[in-house]
Amino acid sequence: MSSSSKKVVVTGGAGFIGSHLVEELVNRGYDVFVYDNFSRGRRENLKNVEDKITIVNGDILEFDLLKDVIKDSQYVFHEVAVCANYCNAFPDASVSCNLQGTLNVIKASLEATVEKVMFSSSATVYGIPIYQPIDEQHPLNPITLYSISKLASEYYFRFFSQSGLKYIIFRNFTVYGIRQTSDEYYKPVIVEFFKKLLTRTKPVLFGDGSQSIDFVHVFDVVQANILGMESDIYNEVFNVGSQTSLSIKELLNLLKDITGIDIQPEYRKAQNIVQQRIANISKIREMLGYNPTVHIKDGIKDEVNYLSKRF
Ligand SMILES: NC(=O)c1ccc[n+]([C@@H]2O[C@H](COP(=O)([O-])OP(=O)(O)OC[C@H]3O[C@@H](n4cnc5c(N)ncnc54)[C@H](O)[C@@H]3O)[C@@H](O)[C@H]2O)c1
Predict the structure, then answer these.
(1) Would residue 163 count as lying in a domain?
(2) Residue 5: which residues within 8 A CB-CB, separation 6 or more?
């Protein structure tokens, strides 16, 4: 069957990662359905492809509607979730949206005999790292409601593989790129620092700002997902990162260079935060041929361009 006759559903397809995935799937000729309740997602994110896709405004908890959309599809990408701070503020949502939502996707996919489901999990399932870089064998120790809901979802996929479900789990590290938005609950550090620089307000660094992060560009997350979908591999878990690290202080300096705005940060006592989380990406490189392509400097320049137009 050619890709043009293959139906693909992207839950959360109007969001940050989902909308990039939708664009790439359309470019590859798939018949794409977006399922999103637009709580965080935006139609504007889909403006490049809206005449080529079907958009369904639905909640992940509306099982009959979801089932109807997933019916006859070959692949499903499950991107719907609420973030860590939202889970802290509304613990029920970690169970309803994140876990029950995932179970709904699994049940609907089994009924539709979908070929494979790709699930966006998170590197936070590892908890506080005990070694670096973190491979998929690293002990699992989720310490937030969000990461507990992600790990529980992973186990649901594993359980239902006994009923014939085929899946791939992607443990995303820190994803960045255009269309990333911040709100009351989700404050990506690049967007927050940019806003501070723009308003000439001191950005806050905790400790000495040496906490380092594995930033992976959204295009590379899309690359991983497409490789997973199109491969013969299933029922595997993969880290998705860049296996490079950038400290918070280096990030701020990079943003200062790109924007030409020089503001000294305010240093505050370090809180209980993960000092470093770097992905070991050997497994996904070897099994799926994944290779991160976007250099952090280029990715951040693009994001700054995008943010400059928005703020
Ligand atoms: N962005 C990251 O750094 C990162 C890191 C690790 C894992 N992830 C995971 O990747 C996935 C996508 O993340 P993102 O950054 O694109 O988030 P996002 O918030 O931009 O996208 C999520 C989408 O789901 C939709 N949605 C939320 N609740 C819904 C519901 N009840 N019913 C239907 N739609 C609903 C939102 O409107 C939004 O469009 C999520 O599962 C997230 O947990 C993201």
Answers:
(1) yes
(2) 31
Nearest-atom number in ligand 1 for the CA of 175 is 3
| 268: in domain | no
Q: For the full predicted model, state whether its pTM sits above 0.90.
A: yes
Number of neighbours of residue 161 by Cβ within 10 angstroms = 14
Residue of 23, 36, 78 with the most ligand 1 atoms within 8 Å of its CB, for mutation: 36
> Of 94, 103, 105, 122, which is best to mutate to test ligand 1, by the most ligand atoms within 8 angstroms of its C-beta?
122
The residue whose CA has the least distance to atom 23 of ligand 1 is: 12
Give CA separation, 78 vs 35, 103, 121, 259, in Å: 10, 11, 9, 35
- Tell me the residue range of the domain where 34 lies: 3-176+216-241
Structural domains counted in the chain: 1
Asked, for residue 267, whether it belongs to a domain, the answer is no
- Token pair for residue 72? 């006859």
Is 71 part of a structural domain of the chain? yes
pLDDT tens-digit profile of 40-93? 999 999 999 999 999 999 999 999 999 999 999 999 999 999 999 999 999 999
Asked if residue 95 has pLDDT above 80, the reply is: yes
Query: Which CATH number covers residue 123?
Result: 3.40.50.720
Active-site residue (options: 30, 75, 86, 146): 146
267 a catalytic residue: no
Nearest CA to ligand 1 atom 15: 16
Q: Is 307 exposed, middle or buried (0-12, 13-18, 19+ CB in 10 A)?
A: buried
Within 8 A by CB and 6+ apart from 148, the residues are 94, 142
